[in-house]
Amino acid sequence: MSFIAATELRQRRGTRMRKPTQVAVSAVAVLGMSAMALTGTVSGASASTSHRASAVVGHLLPGSSAQATLAYWTPARMRSAKDVSVVVDHAPVTASPAVGKPDGKAGAVAGGLPAGMSASRVAAAKSAVTPQAFSYPYPYDSFNVPTTDYKKWPWSMNGAIFFTNNGVNYVCSGTSVAGVNGSSDENEVWTAGHCVANTEGGNQWDSSAIFIPGYNGAVSNFDPYGEFVAYGLETTGAWFSSYDFSVDEGAMLVGYSTKQPKNHRILGNLTGYDGFAWNWGTDEQFVTFGYPAASPYNGESMIEDIAATAVSDTGIGGSASVPPIGIGSPLTGGSSGGAWNVDWSDSGTGYINGHNDYKYSSQPLAMYSPYQDTLANTVRCFGASSC
């Protein structure tokens, strides 16, 4: 549980992202099937297929593997799964305030409540943040989420992802999100692209992937909502083919809960689901979540981090029109894919507008995320232009 992967990324500013010689990234699998093809449950996915579009790629996991996946992920395997983080070994080249121009019109979809729950609001009102130039170490506030909140909305939307890539078991983080199948079947999880493919390099999709919302590895009832087996996986073409961290974004579709009555097994109905924003301003106040597993953490607890945009990473390169952004964060391997929320509160889901993605070896108290643009929403929509 103390493994942190190091990448050999010594590309220069402005150069095309090269495939690293070492990549050990937390991953979930990916799918680029059309939205219409992904409305079934795990049992409805009968064949392993792949689809590629110009911007996104994906993978459909066989429905026949669902029971084997559940049997495979014992509590012992979960506790021993490798924490995976992408640590870049060169010094960052940063700009502050953030730079770049979004590639399209700003948009957002609202989050939702668990079934049967009422609240004064679901999506919090957008608030402006004044750009500030911070010097490293960037400010943040980080703490353990009380375990009593794991089953309370909106904390319940966050969870751990366990998966196998190239024969090795890994752990990552993710968040229930407004998905491609809509309110009748909110069954989507947002995470990092490296939490869906390429953990071990060689353009490898994940296998045996499950999402556990409200995961608590310290108790016997570690899966209060049950386990959700992934059947559809999606990421950007540039991440899958070129390890482009500027668009390292991923999503997964999951089947029904293993622990609930048949009429109440859909992920979003149980936990609620987060909103999603794209092409918003780069200067934001974030509330982030994740399950870090590398020291000083152990992967058993949900950690919350509060921080504002500190820098724009103009040195990582890649295809995105707006460079990744950085915040202060002590989170370590295993937190990859955990949501960065804007306008989040205990009475409104707010919107996912980033995620824990990569760190620099020279900045252990900083975390970077791709900027969420139109392509990010295309990943959320599994290849559709909107959903």
List key phrases describing it.
387 residues; mainly beta; Thrombin, subunit H; 7-stranded mixed β-sheet; 5 helices; 29% strand
Written overview of the protein:
By secondary structure, this protein is mainly beta. The protein has a single domain, classed as Thrombin, subunit H (Beta Barrel). It is built from 5 helices and 23 strands. It has a 7-stranded mixed β-sheet, with no helix packed on it. A 7-stranded mixed β-sheet has the order 7-15-21-20-16-17-8, covered by helices on one side. A 6-stranded antiparallel barrel has the order 9-10-11-14-13-12. A hairpin with a 3-residue loop joins β2 (49-52) and β3. The protein is globular. Mean pLDDT is 83; it is low at 1-53.
Shape: globular
Rg measurement, Å: 18 Å
> What's the β-strand tally?
23
Terminal-residue CA separation: 37 Å
Beta fraction? 25-35%
Q: What would you say the CATH architecture is?
A: Beta Barrel
Mean pLDDT: 83
Order of helices and strands: EEEHHEEEEEEEEEEHEHEEEEEEEEEH
Low-confidence segments, given as residue ranges, are 1-53
Strand order of the largest sheet: 1-5-22-23-19-18-6
Whole-number tally of structural domains:
1
The protein's oligomeric status is: single chain
Percent in helix: under 10%
CATH topology: Thrombin, subunit H
